[in-house]
Design brief:
Layout (H helix, E strand, L loop, with lengths): L3 H29 L9 H12 L7 E4 L2 H4 L4 H8 L3 E3 L7 H10 L8 E5 L17 H6 L2 H7 L4 H15 L50 H16 L4 E5 L4 H7 L3 H18 L4 E5 L13 E3 L2 E2 L1 H18 L6
Parallel strand pairs: 1-2, 1-3, 3-4, 4-5
Antiparallel strand pairs: 6-7
Helix pairs in contact: 4-12, 5-9
């Protein structure tokens, strides 16, 4: 029989050797495949290809970003109010870096369209590492050691996501897809939650179950990636309307004065500073500059507008575009 200590030593050396090999292969693949230039959000790439690249008429207004653009900004309202063509290529959990990479890949900004882009705060929190709060586009922007430090609590899940990413790159992509309402995803229903019902989110002692705010660590690599993505879009010279979306009054009441409220205010200030670096970016802050124009009935959950609320928000965005003369400046 193999002595226990010898077996343990052999097992340890084998595990370490495998980890070293996997690490080296991962680093070489990321560099060799040039993943910092390859769009990795397949849902966003499909929308961009189907609604813009393969379209006979290129849109004048493009809506991009995450679910709070996908479900909050209706191209039909834009076309009716501004009398110009529009599409919505935003996707659930879509990050700014994914927008920048996908638009670069297909040279979407060469004709200088007007961009309306949402930027939700999970992109600013390094503790938001669930699969729908940390994209692979963001991951590959980080140095390898930084990737490990950011996702240290979910290394097995990240390893699985990377395997799927590499396997997906080897497949032929089917990019054409039919999208109703020019990519807009309107949601029916009205929010009926009360402040008392929101206690399940939890905001005591800096802890919460909400995925955007878990293990709150603002700034760091996510801030760098988000800043660089905004810079890349701005360098195109396109007129950009960047907005921090509204939240429901009941959620605002629940978090008022809390650490989540302060984080959202700090995030708004970050977006404002970043936007001010670029003359072609207009920043609209619906979190800080809150009014009663979006009651609870305009939301289907605490942070997403329903179809009625989306029409209101889109109208406000259109009015800003008209007031700024962005259509005339094209």
């Amino acid at each position: 029989m193999i002595p226990y200590r010898t077996w343990l030593k052999t097992f340890f050396v084998t595990v370490v050797s495998i980890l070293i090999i996997v690490t080296v292969v991962d680093i070489l693949l990321q560099r060799g495949l040039g993943l910092r230039q390859v769009p990795l959000d397949s849902d966003m790439e499909k929308k961009v290809y189907s609604l813009i690249v393969s379209a006979k008429e290129k849109p004048t207004v493009i809506v991009a970003g995450d679910s709070r653009a996908e479900r909050h900004v209706d191209p039909a309202v834009i076309e009716n109010r501004l009398k110009t063509s529009a599409v919505n290529v935003a996707v659930s959990s879509g990050e700014m870096i994914s927008v920048a990479k996908t638009f670069k890949r297909y040279d979407i900004l060469k004709d200088k369209p007007i961009l309306i882009v949402s930027a939700t705060s999970f992109q600013y929190n390094n503790g938001a590492i669930d699969h729908d709060s940390l994209s692979m586009d963001s991951v590959v922007e980080m140095p390898w050691i930084q990737q490990i430090l950011v996702v240290r609590e979910k290394l097995p899940e990240m390893a699985y996501r990377k395997i799927r990413m590499y396997l997906g790159l080897s497949k032929n992509k089917k990019l054409l897809k039919n999208y109703a309402e020019k990519g807009f995803v309107g949601v029916e229903g009205k929010l009926s939650a009360t402040v008392d019902q929101l206690v399940t989110i939890g905001i005591e002692n800096g802890k919460t179950h909400h995925p955007w705010y878990k293990d709150l660590r603002p700034g760091g690599p996510k801030e760098i990636i988000l800043t660089e993505a905004i810079d890349r879009l701005a360098e195109s010279g396109c007129p950009i309307v960047l907005f921090n979306p509204p939240v429901s009054p009941v959620f605002r009441e629940y978090i008022q004065g809390s650490w989540i409220d302060q984080f959202e205010k700090d995030y708004s200030a970050f977006l404002q500073r970043t936007a001010q670096q670029h003359p072609n970016i207009r920043f609209l802050d619906f979190y800080q500059n809150w009014t009663d124009q979006f009651p609870n009935e305009d939301f289907y959950d605490i942070q997403h507008l329903n179809r009625i609320g989306a029409r209101k928000l889109t109208a406000i965005l259109c009015d800003r575009i008209a007031e700024e003369g962005l259509l005339r400046s094209k």
